[in-house]
């Protein structure tokens, strides 16, 4: 008898019956946490203290994920989202929660993750916070050209999708940038090259306001004139980014941008990393310098240094500072920033901080260490801690999971967690950033 293959049903994706669940807390990704039949259930959109109707959408051995259907009893922290694009745009996912409650929930999530990693309780009461709205000094807008309507859409990507949600304003962007979106959208649709445009980056820094347009073809004289008129009318600087990553002004001259940090001026190229929340960045730098308290006779190493955001303020204390960065272009920018500041007690090196560092000229005994890695963390770099032997180190983290993992390495190498602070870099979102001070026992 012939036998035919019949695929087994994917039980992990089958929908459950509707359930009434009690939400006890938020996880570090902003989802409500409930318990059902001995499993932890994660429900995006639900808030602590709420009773909700939900349906399980995915079931694993130890946990499940659910879809929020109805809020039966709302939390006192639940509010009406301010942005009309909430739940469609992939940017903000906690606008339905009072900002004070957001910060408390993030502090609890950070404390819980570090407590599990260390096997002892940590309660996070130190919170670096600022404006809850209009705090972003930089944003990248996506474009999408509709061949049928011959119109260009400008907005943000929908969550877990390539679809562009068209917007005309954004309440977490600096107000002057938000006000630019609608007239910029109108301008782009008048350009001859609109069908070939890439993303658009908006930047507001102390030294100017910028619109950076990704172009894939040379612009016509008419399009150039339209961009110049827009720049004059809205008092912005229009820059064009090409396929090779170079950035030019409308006269064809290579350009960069700079932000101020107290008396320091730090140049960077559009597309390269800087902290998008200038107010919080200033607080972070002040806190890092205060925690490390470098002395003039000490050597400080700044890994993942970028354009010198922490290195230069640390060098202002008189300490000898070495910064290391994996992006060669940013190393050159950092060197230029140090030269402009007149600092000869800081040096910058290019290096792959996930590779073998044994031959690096900067690797050796130091007094203090600062780490500001990307989301992947600094696990590989910490394997060389025995050669550096800093008395203290500050870890600036944009991912609490990698911070918790890396802090275990520090514990094993003889360091204790002396200070832990939540950094609310991105209000209205689930994103958790943190700063931790570790001291050698």
TrEMBL record:
Domain TRAM: 12-70
Pfam families reported in the protein's UniProt record: TRAM, tRNA_U5-meth_tr
GO BP annotations, alphabetical order: methylation
Entry keyword set: 4Fe-4S, Iron, Iron-sulfur, Metal-binding, Methyltransferase, rRNA processing, S-adenosyl-L-methionine, Transferase
Keyword Iron-sulfur belongs to the record: yes
Superkingdom assignment: Bacteria
Entry EC number(s): 2.1.1.190
Annotated catalytic residues: 398
Residues noted as binding [4Fe-4S] cluster in the record, renumbered to the chain: 83, 89, 92, 170
InterPro entries: 23S_rRNA_MeTrfase_RlmD, MeTrfase_TrmA_AS, MeTrfase_TrmA_CS, NA-bd_OB-fold, SAM-dependent_MTases_sf, TRAM_dom, U5_MeTrfase_fam
GO molecular function, one term: methyltransferase activity
Residues annotated as binding S-adenosyl-L-methionine: 275, 304, 309, 325, 352, 372
Reactions catalysed according to its record: uridine(1939) in 23S rRNA + S-adenosyl-L-methionine = 5-methyluridine(1939) in 23S rRNA + S-adenosyl-L-homocysteine + H(+)
Family per record: Belongs to the class I-like SAM-binding methyltransferase superfamily. RNA M5U methyltransferase family. RlmD subfamily.
Free-text function comment from the UniProt entry: Catalyzes the formation of 5-methyl-uridine at position 1939 (m5U1939) in 23S rRNA.
Protein name (Swiss-Prot/TrEMBL): 23S rRNA (uracil(1939)-C(5))-methyltransferase RlmD
Source organism of the structure: Shewanella corallii
